[in-house]
Design goal:
This protein has about 230 residues and is mainly α. The protein has one domain (about 5-205). The chain contains 11 helices and 2 strands; from the N terminus they run H-H-H-H-H-H-H-H-H-H-H-E-E. It has helices at about 5-30, 40-55, 65-70, 75-90, 100-120, 125-130, 135-155, 160-175, 180-185, 190-210, 215, and strands at about 220, 230. Helix 1 (about 5-30) packs across helix 4. The longest helix is centred in the first third of the chain and has 27 residues, at about 5-30. Keywords: Membrane, Transmembrane, Transmembrane helix.
Length: about 230
């Protein structure tokens, strides 16, 4: 398995962290500063995006991407893909949900839990290192691409499918971000986002369930021939 060039990784980190920061800022600015940003116009969005790109492109330690990479490592291609999809949606004034699709969130949560337990030595399966194996990575990348294409074309989860296809394509062509397929599909920030999405989705499902009152459960039932009603 070939590894990406360090210079290419640095360029990727600048672009990926810029996409993530721009997507986050454009989502929270109207909430944090409603008087200044009641509704972001395209000019305001362009100013925010250009400013973030210029700051992230600063050389060496002057760039926030340098410190973010030291703390969180390289962001996954899937997280960068989600950020790009969110930016495109906000640019075209389409509604954007803060939560991941429940199916994608649950899959990422389970896969991330197994990988992190494996990395900590709890399971000791060596799954992460198989992401460097050419054959295993090719099979997993093909399965991920098929899942992303199905989700996109069948309209199950358009944003998730597009982001998944983008991350697989980025890894297949350039081996970014690290040469390991798992790093292209998952990172700690994305996993935390997926766990939060699963929790919120579970709470919404629980609240949406029809409430059954105790009086409705205690329905008298007549026993034939006894003249007595049982509960």
């Amino acid at each position: 398995m070939s590894l990406p060039d360090l210079a290419l990784q640095i360029i990727y980190a600048r672009i990926a962290w810029g996409l993530i920061a721009a997507a986050m800022l454009l989502s929270v600015l109207p909430t944090m500063l409603p008087r200044i940003f009641p509704q972001l116009a395209r000019r305001s969005k362009a100013i925010v995006a250009v400013t973030i790109a210029a700051v992230m492109a600063l050389p060496g330690e002057a760039s926030p991407a340098y410190w973010l990479t030291l703390i969180f490592q390289y962001p996954s291609g899937l997280l960068a893909g989600y950020s790009l999809v969110a930016l495109c949606a906000r640019w075209t004034e389409k509604p954007v949900d803060f939560l991941l699709h429940p199916a994608f969130a649950l899959a990422l949560t389970l896969v991330g839990a197994v990988l992190y337990l494996d990395a900590f030595g709890v399971l000791a399966l060596g799954l992460y290192y198989r992401g460097f194996d050419a054959d295993a990575a090719a099979l997993l990348a093909g399965a991920a691409a098929l899942a992303g294409a199905a989700a996109f074309t069948l309209r199950w989860a358009v944003s998730g499918g597009a982001a998944l296809l983008a991350s697989v394509l980025l890894f297949s062509l350039l081996r970014l971000p690290t040469g390991n397929l798992w790093d292209a599909l998952l990172d700690p920030l994305l996993w935390a986002w997926a766990v939060g999405s699963v929790i919120v989705a579970a709470r919404r499902y629980y609240r949406a369930r029809p409430a059954r009152s105790p009086a409705a459960e205690l329905v008298p039932v007549s026993v034939p021939g006894s003249g007595v009603e049982q509960l």
